[in-house]
Amino acid sequence: MPGSAVPRRGPAASPASAPQVSVFPSPQELGSALAQLVAQREAQSGRFSLGLSGGSLVRILAQELPAAAAAPARWLVAFVDERRVPLQDPESNYGAYKTSLFSKIAIPEDQIVVINPSLPVEEAAADYAAKLKEAFQGEDMPVFDLLILGVGPDGHTCSLFPDHPVLQEREKIVAAVSDSPKPPPERITLTLPVLNAARSVVFVATGDSKAAVIKRILEGEEENPLPAALVQPHTGKVYWFLDEPAAKELTIPFEKHSIL
Q1: pLDDT per position as a tens digit, 206-242
Q2: Pairing between β-strand 48-52 and β-strand 146-149 as defined by DSSP bridges
Q3: What's the CA gap between 187 and 59, in Å, rounded?
Q4: Cross-strand bridge partners of residue 21
Q5: How far apart are CA 94 and CA 219, in angstroms?
Q6: Stated pTM of the model
Q7: Which among 133, 158, 128 has a CA at the least distance from the CA of 143?
């Protein structure tokens, strides 16, 4: 039996300790609600700092976000992880967003934080950390207004993979990964301390291939939690935006949204 569903129309506040799980009839309606959440967080901020994941999120955001962006000149955009590939490579998160989204939203180029993929992976991570510290001047730890995260079928988020030593990193804000189990092997990733300093985090997952791992993350009491389950902001809010196939194994209560 799926979790009990309470119809609602938009993201509502929830205690920082309890993720708010929202289920949508389709990825299209999920995308509309995600754009609404971005617009709400933007309206609450002076400068709006946004951390983006790649993958299927690129298409969802490219379709829905341009109409919702009220003041992109105030945005600071960074990437929660990035592959060490040329920026024009199809595997580059920055390259994918530049083609699909940044061409539609007038974010100043110097307010988009990008890796230098010509550097070795350790140096690229250190360089990206320095760029973030410059962008978040006066903050020991970058505090993003909103992070939009994906989750893999293995429970990874960003480039934080199960049982990887990077999960234990507590000092660095950006870590290098040279042995990613998912190609390409060399990546940089934000670390858990940065994810858990954010004001808001939204996980986005679609499709029945994610159903089993989402149940583990949201309902499991595992001794060795999956990486996505370790994202628990100290004072921020956590949202899960799922489509119905991704939520089909949940037994916890969730809110069933309808945009139409």
Answers
A1: 999 999 999 999 998 889 999 999 999 999 999 999 9
A2: parallel
A3: 21
A4: 240
A5: 33
A6: 0.92
A7: 133
